[in-house]
Amino acid sequence: MDINPLDTEQIGLKTLEKHLIRSKSEVSLKIGLPKEISNDERRISLTPGGVSILKANGHEIFIEQGAGENANFPDQQYADAGAEIALSSEDVFKKSELVLKIAPLSDDELELLQPEQALISALHIGSQTKEYMKAFMDKSITGIGYEYIRGQDKEFPIVRMMHEITGSMAMQIAAHYLESMSGGQGIMLGGISGVPPATVVILGAGITGEYAARTALGYGAQVFVMDTDLAALRRLENALDRRIITAVANHQYLSSALKFADVIIGAAMAEGERSPCWVTEDMVAGMKAGSVIVDTVIDHGGCVATSRPTSHSEPSYVEHDIIHHCVPNIPSGVARTATYALNNVLVPYVLAIGDAGGVKQCLWENVALRNGTYSYKKHLTKKSLAEMFDMPYREIEMLIASQI
Question: How far apart are CA 404 and CA 400, in angstroms?
């Protein structure tokens, strides 16, 4: 088959296959991919190429009918890759020992969980409940969260990839809402000769903030980045060749910056915890009418006081004459790109589980997945979650070492 040298999807897939196709794993895993039931969630955890790699290593994959269609991966491609097409989510959960999802489980999906099952998905800390955690404990579920998976290099690979997409997309979204037809000020991000560009204020100097800044600079906007971490500001300033203006995110600088901002990108967050709320309602009320707020960390609680979760079907609302866009799963808007990104990270982890002989054995060997575990054998294993929900917890290392 001829491959277009500009077809990045094919190039990425071939590179992944080159590194991962090998002899069969220690155990054969039964892996389930149920269809995402949220109307706004279009991603899926594995591409057909990822399925073929897992199949070549001796694993069985069960995918619900139509699960990949919203990311433009039809059932036939998964069937050709060796997956079994299941007719319902119930069928997928019953047949699987490891379930791969994007969104946290719904109430109906919690009922479908089988005792001792393992789940790898997002947790969305800002919208979780004590009852959700108790359901995991009751069924002795091993829960591994995208937000917690962290390797020895201290990087969060899934979070990083999704944040790169989110940061870039946030600026595309902001540019759209600044247009007159969208109710904005009717200005361009980059301006033109003789007309100054828009002013973008980015809250947070992490990965999302970095990619938002890169995209905004590409448009030609004037970019301010604010954070409470001086080291993070210094790193980003150096990485972007000092083309941005940085400031400490204190009340004085925030109040001043928001008064002349055309766009606010909310990207302030602490890994594994709720986002800090830096922007008060009074600050929002003092902004220019028709300005835009894109709060990219709304799934962690948001960093703007007037933010509340929206959806891809109803993405925005206006408060104090400011347009707010607060969609929790921005990468779902580019579902195919996001699915390839997830697949490239998840496939090696699933292979590692099979090579180790199962989830329990892999948690002992694999630092990233061990860090990612938030529930194990009827125990909560993250202190931050235990404090949030007033529940007891035990360290995952202690549980594994105790042979529980």
Answer: 6
CA distances from 143 to 102, 134, 292, 358, 388 (A): 13, 12, 36, 14, 17
pTM of the model: 0.83
CA 180 to CA 37: how far, in whole Å? 34
Amino acid letter for position 318: V
Q: What is the DSSP letter of 151?
A: -
* Residue whose C-alpha is closest to residue 52's, from 81, 79, 78, 80: 81
Catalytic residue among 59, 124, 300, 325: 124
Tracing tokens 């399925």 back to the chain, one arrives at 51
Distance CA 38, CA 222 (A): 37
Q: What is the mean pLDDT of residues 335-360?
A: 96
Q: What is the residue whose two structure tokens read 């989110």? A: 166
Asked whether the domain spanning 157-328 has the same topology as the one spanning 8-145+334-401, the reply is yes
The CB density around residue 242, as the number of other CB atoms within 10 Å, is 9
Q: How far apart are CA 76 and CA 67, in angstroms?
A: 11
Cross-strand partners of 191: none
> Beta 98-100 vs 199-203: how paired, if at all?
unpaired
> Tell me, what DSSP letter sits at residue 317?
E
pLDDT tens profile 27-68? 899 999 999 998 789 999 999 999 999 999 999 999 999 999
Architecture per CATH, 8-145+334-401? 3-Layer(aba) Sandwich (3.40)
Domain spans in the chain, listed from the N-terminal domain onward: 8-145+334-401, 157-328
pLDDT in tens, 280-311: 999 999 999 999 999 999 988 899 999 999 99
CA distance 92 to 289: 49
Terminus-to-terminus CA distance in the chain, angstroms? 50
Q: Which two tokens stand for residue 249?
A: 């995110």
Whether 320 is catalytic: no
* CA neighbor of 382 nearest in space, from 227, 273, 234, 260: 273
Tokens 């699933």 sit at which residue?
Answer: 350
Query: Exactly one of 227, 262, 295, 299 is catalytic; which is it?
Result: 299
Q: Is the dihedral of CA 59, 62, 67, 69 positive or negative?
A: positive
Q: In this structure, are residues 85 and 65 in contact, taking their beta carbons and an 8 Å threshold?
A: yes
Query: Is 299 labeled as catalytic in the residue annotation?
Result: yes
List phi, psi (to 5°) of 325: -120, 115
Classify domain 157-328 by CATH architecture.
Answer: 3-Layer(aba) Sandwich (3.40)
342 token code pair: 């997830």
Degrees, nearest 5: CA angle 91-97-99: 70
